[in-house]
Design goal:
By secondary structure, the chain is α/β, with parallel strands linked by helices. The protein is about 45% helix and about 15% strand. Strands 2-1-3-4-5-6 form a six-stranded parallel sheet, with helices on both faces. Strands 9-8-7-10-11-12 form a six-stranded parallel sheet, sandwiched between helices. Strand 1, helix 1 and strand 2 form a beta-alpha-beta unit. The chain is globular, with a radius of gyration of 21 Å.
Length: about 350
């Protein structure tokens, strides 16, 4: 097949997803995209210029679009050129249940774009069961807010064409974990420097451990989209020489940092899949994750009590346990590696291929 992949926000995890599938699919995947800027404008108006790009591609057999696209508008502009090509929508995130910055008011324009895109798609793929379930739980409430001609009667139809298709991750490029060097254990942060990832709680936990005299080092990487992430600067000052890396790392250095880290912590307020955590655990880091969001489905049930926490005090206690029981923590991480390996593109690309082939 010839697959047209449409990504209006081509950066970070969205770009890794698009490039990863294009590289590993058994079919030809052609990407049309825009730069990852002005996300609201991408959702509102990106479909017009992306449709113009698609017109130059030639015939395709199926369309795979990300949730940042107004798929209804895109199909309206391309069906005269491409014909009635089946279209699938991939839900990385959504604008209804995504946590907004405190003080901002939810603008229903963007959840409605998600909804109309889901309504016109031939299939809707979610990156996790958590994402699927939370969105549908809130969608009827959203549609009920409008004065008349509500779309609620379409919900069973849309739910019927929705399924879970996890993100593929390029795990095979992560090197094997080196032999322990006997140094202080390293605690890793490898997520975005954004409000929804709860970084303040992470630094508060490490500050308490430092004040208690625990011996550890800290690796801080991940993308920064803000001008002044104050909690990161303050955390760096407080932790001082414990910080062995601070800032964005190019991919070769990033995977080296993953392989050298012993513990990975998430304090996220939002996580629909968790690529960064998946990478870190595959690399051999023991995870401490919130007992909510996507994480309970990511960690096998028999390890929930060890890897998942519910309160700040449980987070601190979990890190302390991993620092004091390094061999046991390494054993848990080794048990989790094959669980994470199921998300490698070598496994996931054939699943994507089969799902899209079924639409023809």
């Amino acid at each position: 097949m010839r697959i047209l992949l449409v990504e209006p926000y081509y950066s970070g995890s969205h770009r890794a997803w698009a490039d990863g599938y294009a590289a590993h699919s058994a079919h030809e995947v052609v990407i049309v995209s825009h730069e990852a800027r002005f996300w609201k404008w991408r959702m509102r108006g990106g479909f017009v210029t992306l449709a113009e790009q698609a017109a130059a591609i030639g015939d395709v057999d199926v369309i795979l679009a990300s949730d940042m696209l107004d798929l209804a508008g895109f199909l309206g502009l391309t069906r005269g050129r491409l014909g009635h090509v089946p279209a699938a929508l991939y839900m990385h995130e959504n604008q209804l249940t995504y946590p907004w910055v405190e003080g901002d008011e939810l603008d229903y324009t963007y959840p409605l774009i998600n909804w109309t895109s889901m309504a016109v798609a031939d299939a809707v793929f979610f990156n996790s069961a958590f994402h699927h379930d939370t969105l549908f739980a809130e969608m009827d409430v959203l549609l009920g807010r409008f004065p008349d001609y509500r779309h609620s009667h379409r919900l069973p139809e849309v739910r019927g064409k929705a399924s879970v298709l996890s993100v593929g991750v390029d795990l095979r490029s992560i090197p094997d974990r080196p032999s322990p060097d006997g140094g202080a254990p390293r605690i890793l942060w490898n997520q975005r420097w954004e409000y929804d990832k709860g970084s303040s709680e992470f630094f508060q936990a490490l500050g308490r451990l430092a004040d208690a005299g625990r011996d550890f080092r800290v690796v801080i990487c991940g993308e920064n989209f803000r001008n002044q992430p104050e909690e990161f600067d303050e955390g760096r000052r407080r932790l001082g020489e414990r910080v062995v890396h601070f800032g964005y790392a190019p991919y070769p250095e990033y995977v080296r940092l993953l392989a050298s880290s012993d513990i990975v912590v998430s304090t996220a307020a939002q996580e629909f899949f968790g690529i960064a955590i998946t990478e870190a655990v595959y690399a051999g880091a023991f995870p401490l994750l919130p007992d909510r969001l996507v994480y309970p489905e990511r960690i096998p049930r028999h390890l929930h009590g060890r890897c998942l926490y519910r309160t700040f005090d449980e987070l601190v206690a979990g890190v302390e346990w991993a620092l004091e029981h390094r061999v046991e923590a390494e054993g848990v991480a080794a048990e989790l590696k094959p669980v994470m390996a199921e998300f490698d593109w070598s496994v996931m690309a054939p699943r994507y291929d089969a799902a899209l082939e079924a639409l023809r």
